[in-house]
Design goal:
The complex is a heterodimer of chains A (121) and B (417). By secondary structure, chain A is mainly alpha-helical. Helix content of chain A is 38%, strand content 0%. By secondary structure, chain B is an alpha/beta fold. The chains are: A mainly alpha (121), B alpha/beta (417). The interface between A and B is medium-sized, with 19 and 32 residues.
Chain lengths: 121, 417
């Protein structure tokens, strides 16, 4: 699986694997410019779940204030690069084929924003 | 013709006071009951994103000669027992003279007996000895342990239900109490709401859901700030509220003091999302409209709204959108306040406490401040929403509650005449 991932940093690769596992998608079909809300169809709770998976994979906590930065997959990679080490700060552009990207979209899209505080309890 | 239904007794256990007089005195001062959680016994707090809550302090179990039930139930049901004991006393009901079959219990509970639940789970996993699980574990954690123990303690043999719709639970328990009396199933219903689940696991769960305020850990009294621009999530609370709900005929016959009349109730589902409200507030508006229709009251007669207002960014905004849909520009003349600004979100108790506040405001013409409403969010700003105490004669009040699971509930109260 790892060999088929786009060329990116080790952190980036781990992010793609984590996201692919959560989304049940082939990670090679994910792209840095993919919006968590508009392209992947995640609502706010699903975004929180996804960040939870990333926190578990990287053994760190992401504070609420940083949520607003995480709107695309590239944002998540950049953020983790900043949090977990020096070096690679590029958004880890993957080399997936255009055809892969065209077929990678989940069926559903929602109009929900990805703001972190949406619950009405 | 359906019976008219009135509120004749109130009881409360809250982070700002145990008993209605001390609660109301603190509420009118705008006093905050939000404090730092010192620890979960030996469990460190520093890894929690949020470290504050509306905690009930100084709660003491009654003397066993007075109450042999409290030691047999979890903290939330102990609160329900205490609030109900006060409400019955306040109502002047002499239970020995009542027909037990005509007294019901409706309890709203969000989380239930999680304290014992977590403790016994930990014991089991650490000891790996199934026989060390406490014999009273199951009767304690079942969600109807409060409604069950209330019936036992006060000899109520009428309809007995537990309603669990998360944060809207006790608006439903009061609404269902009203329905039971309207339908002639009972003369008196003990309508209660209770929760006490500030526990390591439940608190961690709300933290993981990113529903809680995290910006004000060093200033707990500032954290619950409904409708304020600086709000960043709700603050968990604990407590209980009980109302004695009674048919007007029964109350009149025994010359009971009447706080307010219960005239309308609506329950709906948004069928939208487990934790996100529909963004345009249309289902909230629909629920308010149905409750007013049930009450036979025009929107133009509403004077006051006890808002659900948990202090989440989107929840408060959506509630105002829903109210604007119903009241339009007239919302600017309606008094609104948020009880959770004082005590945090008491989950299953929230609707009952909001209804108690509304009954007291109808009776006294005084509205408690909305604490920390210092920098109004332009989306939520209303002329009659204030961080100061307000005076206003109230004829018709709404109480809102919305819960996880897409639940909405609204009650309508009216000044009794």
């Amino acid at each position: 699986m790892k060999s088929s991932l786009p060329k990116t940093s080790e952190i980036g690769q781990q992010v793609y694997l984590t996201l692919g596992k959560y989304l049940r998608l082939d990670p090679t079909n994910l792209h840095p410019e993919d919006s968590l809300r508009d392209d992947l169809g995640l609502d706010s709770l699903q975004t929180i779940e996804l960040v939870y998976e990333v926190e578990s994979a990287f053994d760190l906590q992401i504070p609420d204030e940083d949520f607003g930065r995480l709107t695309t997959i590239g944002d998540v990679v950049l953020y983790l690069n900043e949090r977990t080490g020096p070096a690679d700060t590029s958004p880890s552009t993957p080399q997936a084929t255009p055809s892969a990207k065209q077929t990678s979209r989940p069926a559903t899209k929602t109009k929900n924003s990805t703001h972190s505080k949406k619950r009405h309890t | 013709m359906a019976s008219r239904v009135v509120i004749t007794g109130l009881g409360i256990v809250s982070p700002i006071g145990i008993g209605v007089p001390s609660f109301w005195k603190a509420a009118l001062k705008g006093q905050s009951g939000i404090t730092a959680i010192s620890s979960f016994e030996d469990f460190p707090m520093d890894l929690y994103r949020s470290r504050i809550a509306g905690q009930v302090t100084h709660f003491q179990l009654p003397d066993p000669s007075e109450d042999k039930f409290s030691t047999r139930v979890d903290r939330y049901a102990q609160f329900a027992l205490a609030a109900t004991r006060e409400a019955i006393q306040d109502s002047g009901l002499c239970l020995a003279r009542e027909r037990a079959e005509r007294i019901g219990v409706m309890a709203g509970v969000g989380m239930g007996g999680m304290m014992m639940g977590e403790r016994e789970l930990t014991t089991l996993y650490q000891s790996q000895k199934p026989h060390r699980v406490h014999p009273n574990f199951i009767p304690t954690i079942t969600l109807n342990s409060a409604s069950g123990i209330l019936a036992l303690a006060f000899g109520a043999k009428g309809p007995n239900l537990t309603i669990s719709t998360a944060c809207s639970s006790s608006i439903h328990s009061i609404g269902q109490a009203m329905q039971a009396i309207r339908q002639g199933q009972a003369d008196v219903v003990i309508a209660s709401g209770a929760d006490a689940s500030i526990t390591p696991l439940v608190f961690a769960g709300f933290c993981s859901l990113r529903a809680l305020s995290t910006k004000y850990n060093d200033h707990p009294d500032k954290a619950s700030r409904p409708f304020d621009r600086g709000r960043d999530g709700f603050v968990m609370g604990e407590g209980a509220g009980t109302l004695i709900v009674e048919s007007l005929r029964h109350a009149t016959r025994r010359k009971a003091r009447i706080y307010a009349e219960l005239v309308g109730y609506a329950a709906t589902s948004e069928a939208y999302h487990m934790v996100i409200p529909r963004e345009d507030g249309s289902d909230i508006a629909r629920t308010v409209s149905l409750a007013l229709k049930d009450a036979g009251v025009s929107p133009s007669r509403v004077d006051y709204v006890n808002a659900h207002a948990t202090s989440t960014v989107v929840g408060d905004d959506v509630e105002i959108k829903g109210l604007r849909t119903i009241f339009g520009k007239r919302l600017n003349t309606i008094a609104v306040n948020a009880t959770k600004s004082l005590i945090g979100h008491t989950l299953g108790a929230a609707g009952a406490i909001g209804t108690i506040v509304s009954a007291l405001s109808i009776q006294t013409g005084i509205l408690h401040p909305t604490a920390n409403y210092d920098d109004p969010d332009p989306h939520c700003a209303l002329p009659r929403l204030s961080n100061k105490v307000q005076k206003k004669s109230i004829r018709v009040a709404l109480v809102n509650a919305f819960g996880f699971g897409s639940n909405n509930a609204v009650l309508v109260l009216k000044k009794f005449s």
